[in-house]
Design a protein that fits this description.
By secondary structure, the chain is an alpha/beta fold. Helix content is 33%, strand content 20%. The protein has helices at 30-46, 52-68, 83-90, 100-113, 130-137, 149-158, 194-204, 247-254, 289-293, 297-304, and strands at residues 25-28, 76-80, 120-124, 141-146, 163-166, 179-185, 205-216, 228-230, 238-240, 259-265, 310-317. Strand 4, helix 6 and strand 5 form a beta-alpha-beta unit. The two termini are 32 Å apart.
């Protein structure tokens, strides 16, 4: 979790057609999301992935949704919140069990880490210390850094033997060539440009050291940028923009620094179970994609099928033994 440098996040509210910038408010209409979801499913059918029956069912569902009006739920306006404010609100619930998204990410990241020899390990943007705790269990001397004091408080309680710093990814308080392993998990979606962060991580990494990165692919299908949303933040409904980076952007940031690719995976979310709704569920929260998907489960399964939710990299810095 890291704040963005001056001017970052500008494109979070940029209109695709006009280039206009609306930086402080997002308009969330649950009906708009569901019609858009049906549209993605229909495009999949148009590409030959589904048959006529599926297409006609989706069109009928769109008509029913448009006729339902506010039964789906009322639109809201959400205020922009920065990284520090967002994670202040989320710190208390961040480690709650049952998040399949984190389970998928953790299994791949830990598979990489379990194969590396112990040394000095940096958990950059460590959050509550999920990976710092695992690194310590593997015998590493662990250093954590995060911009959120609230998340760091939980990390310190979880891994009391580790060294923690309140710092962002652009300015790590470590000397050059200092760590053998660096992990940066689920944080780069908060930065607009990868190159400065990769340069800073490579700076503190020793030659021959390993860099493990995980990043989100968004909550929406087909690479559409999505906001991290959560009710209950001090300002009311709020959104934290995400920057979706292409795979080529990670490679372009890494290779000039001498970081070589050792592994890359793009895990997919497990498919939702087959469910049918009769009668329809109650009003959906515009900030909760899961409750929105329950209105159109067949369309949701089609739209999200085979869509990567994460990208996970293992790089190694050239040089060393």
């Amino acid at each position: 979790m890291t704040p963005e440098p001056d001017g970052a996040g500008r494109d979070a509210g940029v209109g695709r057609a006009t280039g206009t910038y609306h930086p402080v408010v997002a308009y969330w209409n649950p009906l708009a999301y569901l019609v858009g979801l049906e549209g993605v499913a229909l495009l999949s059918a148009f590409a030959g992935e589904y048959d006529r029956e599926f297409t006609e069912a989706r069109l009928a569902e769109v008509r029913a949704l448009l006729d339902s009006g506010s039964e789906v739920g009322h639109a809201i306006e959400a205020q922009l919140v920065d990284v520090v404010g967002a994670y202040r609100a989320w710190a208390a619930s961040y480690d709650q069990p049952g998040n399949a998204f984190y389970d998928i990410e953790q299994s791949v990241v830990w598979d990489v880490l379990d194969g590396l020899p112990p040394g000095i390990a940096l958990d950059a943007a460590c959050g509550t210390g999920r990976h710092a705790e695992h690194l310590a269990s593997l015998g590493h001397r662990v250093i954590g850094a995060d911009v959120s004091a609230d998340m760091l408080a939980r990390a310190r309680a979880k891994v009391p033997a580790a060294e923690f710093h309140e710092a962002d990814l652009h300015h790590l308080p470590l000397p050059d060539d200092h760590v053998d392993v660096a992990v940066c998990a689920l944080a780069l979606a908060h930065v607009p440009e990868l190159a400065p962060v990769f340069a800073e991580l490579a700076r503190v990494l020793r030659p021959g050291g390993h860099l493990v990165i995980s990043d989100v692919r968004g909550l929406f299908p087909d690479g559409i940028r999505s906001p991290l949303a959560r009710a209950g933040i001090d300002v009311g409904p709020a959104f934290l923009p995400q920057h979706m980076h292409l795979a080529s952007e990670y490679v372009s940031a890494a290779l000039p620094l001498g970081l070589q690719v050792r592994r890359c995976e793009e895990p997919r979310m497990l498919p939702a179970p087959e469910t049918h709704r009769d009668p329809p569920p109650g009003p959906a929260s515009p900030a909760d994609v899961a409750t929105l998907n329950a209105w159109c489960p067949e369309a949701a399964r089609a739209a999200y099928r085979d869509v990567p939710v994460l990208i996970i990299w293992h790089f190694q810095l050239t040089g060393g033994a």
